[in-house]
């Protein structure tokens, strides 16, 4: 094969916010698939906040990317050669092939995608890990009931978009929080949330107006000043779905960092009988993918599940796009189109 394999490697571990020099872009030979493997040519790479954690060697739920190794990440692409009977050239698949154009991957780690349900890139977002995250967190922790008020932070993002629309489909009243007027307009106008608050403006008066009866479910994607504003408004028996706290990802664990956001006073957890629970989608999510897809397919077909993608061109652009994700630079599910 005359093509080469473009790869993005982790050159060094960032201190604070990542910079482009933390990555290295190299060209390598295209790998040969072994028996039981498939050679996949990636068409889209997903960029996700969890990748900041993989760049660090701090103790976590998953191992860090070794220095000099290909950055970890999910892709959708097409099979170009197969040494496994389950896949043939031309099949479209999703899997964790990393920040690279080609990957020889064990067939058992791939999932076939169906472009008649949604376009290829959507299998990294609304039908991929972020969408599955939304579904798992609502099923297991948020459990919104008809008439309840659900508040979703990072509402225009990959996870937040799906959380709000699934909660609406279950009869809840949904209030998003996002950064800036354009994102808020999209969240109400296109996604159909009942309201969306701009966290760049004072949140308390906006929350007073949008949540006069308090908050039953708070979906936490952000932390920081957004969490501090929403937490005191949780009603008795409220649920706080701890999905992520992206505002803190560039702060070293345990560091007494200037500017680290102060957490809320947790005293009311007992008095209000609150449930605050974290979760990681990969614990149980992929084993329940078929149930997730069964709920999503009819919503997509009926136009009741919409989404926005923010697609940048070329693997070279991946480091800067990822750095921007940690500052709110993306508008919608961030992905890279791999030429
Ligand atoms: N638990 C799990 O298994 C799991 C799985 C997937 C994702 N997550 C978490 O879910 C959250 C959302 O992920 P996503 O993939 O859907 O990303 P996303 O919402 O598409 O993008 C991140 C968004 O977070 C907001 N943001 C970024 N930096 C911020 C900062 N310093 N302060 C406040 N807001 C900031 C920005 O939105 P605004 O401009 O609107 O502020 C940005 O667009 C993240 O915390 C992620 O780690 C958890």
Folded structure, characterized:
The chain is an alpha/beta fold and 339 residues long. It has two domains: 4-125 and 308-337, Medium-chain alcohol dehydrogenases, catalytic domain (Quinone Oxidoreductase, Chain A, domain 1, Alpha-Beta Complex), CATH 3.90.180.10; 129-284, Rossmann fold. 25% of the residues lie in helices and 25% in strands. The chain has ten helices and 15 strands. Strands 3, 4, 5, 6, 7, 14 and 15 form a seven-stranded mixed β-sheet that branches. The chain has a six-stranded parallel β-sheet with strand order 10-9-8-11-12-13, sandwiched between helices. Strand 9 (173-178), helix 4 (181-189) and strand 10 form a beta-alpha-beta unit. The longest helix is centred in the middle third of the chain and has 14 residues, at 129-142. The radius of gyration is 20 Å and the shape is globular. The two termini are 16 Å apart. The mean pLDDT is 95. The structure holds NADP nicotinamide-adenine-dinucleotide phosphate (NAP). NADP nicotinamide-adenine-dinucleotide phosphate binds next to helix 2, helix 3 and strand 15. NADP nicotinamide-adenine-dinucleotide phosphate (NAP) binds next to helix 2, helix 3 and strand 15.
